[in-house]
Design goal:
Length: 205
């Protein structure tokens, strides 16, 4: 006797898909898996936030810290604070400032090239023995920078920018000659000035 078996396609109620469909599904499965893996990896990296300090600011006695939070595939929101407590008879560099901005990254947040827009509000008491300025300023600026990965969770970022600022301050000479009176001048002006000069180290979390 000769044994025989029925093909699944001949069983009642069973429809075998066309051969081309079976080949397409089999060959596309690895690509779908790879795409899902890439999307998951990208989503995980885009969810990082960063806490940073500007090394140049600390070198000048300006205490500072900032946070950069990824909010979209190529966008992040940046918030920073600065405080310089230096105030002596010869030199006064007392500044309290806050900056809020957005960054548009070329590839993904915290890696590579980026462009930024930011706004700054600051109160200052600066000057030397000859001239002092007490006042405040507000303005908007644009910047460009680049971020390098130093380790799994550590970045180095260089950033520079310029901005347009409205300044309102009181100006006077703290040490006039015996023949002069202390004179106070109110000064309001709009200036184009550097808005960001940073060499920052960031920790990603």
């Amino acid at each position: 006797m000769f044994g025989w078996a029925m093909r699944p396609s001949t069983l009642p109620g069973f429809m075998e898909p066309p051969y081309s469909t079976r080949i397409s599904s089999a060959t596309s499965a690895p690509y779908r898996s790879a795409s899902v893996a890439r999307m998951a990896a990208h989503t995980a990296s885009a969810q990082y936030s960063a806490v940073r300090v500007n090394a140049l600011g600390w070198a000048t006695g300006t205490l500072n810290a900032g946070v950069d939070v990824a909010v979209a595939e190529k966008w992040s929101v940046d918030v920073s604070g600065y405080w310089n407590p230096i105030s002596t008879d010869a030199l006064r560099a007392n500044v309290l400032a806050a900056t809020v901005g957005v960054r548009r990254w070329r590839f993904e947040p915290h890696v590579g090239l980026f462009w930024g827009l930011h706004t700054t509000l600051a109160k200052y008491k600066v000057g030397n023995r000859r001239t002092r300025y007490n006042g405040w300023t507000v303005g908007i600026g644009s910047s460009v920078g680049y971020s390098w990965m130093l380790a799994k969770r550590w970045n180095l970022t260089l950033e520079g920018g310029v901005g347009l600022y409205y300044m309102d301050d009181l100006r006077w000479h703290p040490d006039p000659s015996p023949y002069e009176e202390v004179r106070y001048d109110r000064c309001r002006r709009i200036v184009l000035a550097p808005s960001k000069i940073e060499v920052a180290f960031s920790y990603l979390f």
